[in-house]
Design brief:
The chain is of the alpha+beta class. It has one domain: PAS domain (Beta-Lactamase), CATH 3.30.450. The protein has helices spanning 35-41, 45-48, 63-74, 121-141, 146-160, 165-173; strands at residues 19-24, 30-33, 79-86, 92-103, 109-117.
């Protein structure tokens, strides 16, 4: 399913007691989606299963954020991130995501679990300008060097704040 959805300016928000849960295989194909996920994203279970999780990728999201996420979880570590997702109807919604590896009986990564919840508005207000700068750098660099350019913006911001990525994200969520 090719993502040809035109983004709108309509924002939907999770409630404080809503949790979006999904599971993917090691390539990012969705193998499970809970009802909350289907409801806010606007897709049926049939439309989501076996699709790449990036079906939800909003064009405002820098590629470097997803590279960081994949690099982290492939190493067997959990990753936290703020993500702006694109719903089927073009609306968007922000999530605070926690992605963790799933292991088989031989302790080999066999997929990933993602639990997303409502982010604090102050966190989105803080992260959105960083993402905009990362995205601008990615676009200026061109496709081949986009991720490196976006990553450099993020690293510079972390260095300016004298903080590492995970402590920053967790402090923003509170």
């Amino acid at each position: 399913m090719k993502n040809r959805i035109t983004p709108t300016t309509v924002e939907h928000s999770l409630t404080s007691d809503s949790f979006i849960v999904s599971k993917t295989d090691t390539t990012g194909r969705i193998t499970y989606a809970n009802r909350t996920f289907m409801h806010i994203a606007g897709y049926s279970e049939r439309e989501l299963l076996n699709q790449q999780h990036n079906i939800l990728r909003h064009p405002d999201m820098p590629r470097a954020v997803f590279q960081l996420l994949w690099d982290t979880i492939k190493q067997g570590q959990e990753c936290f991130a703020f993500v702006k997702n694109l719903a089927k109807d073009g609306s968007f919604y922000w999530v605070f995501a926690n992605v963790t590896p799933d292991y088989d009986s031989n302790h080999k990564i066999c997929g990933y679990f993602s639990v997303r919840r409502m982010p604090r508005r102050e966190a989105i207000d803080a992260i959105e300008p960083i993402y905009k700068d990362m995205l601008a750098a990615e676009q200026a660099a061109g496709p081949r060097d986009a991720i490196a350019a976006g990553t450099q913006v993020l690293l510079s911001r972390l260095q300016e704040g004298n903080i590492e990525y995970e402590p920053l994200i967790l402090s923003l969520q509170g």
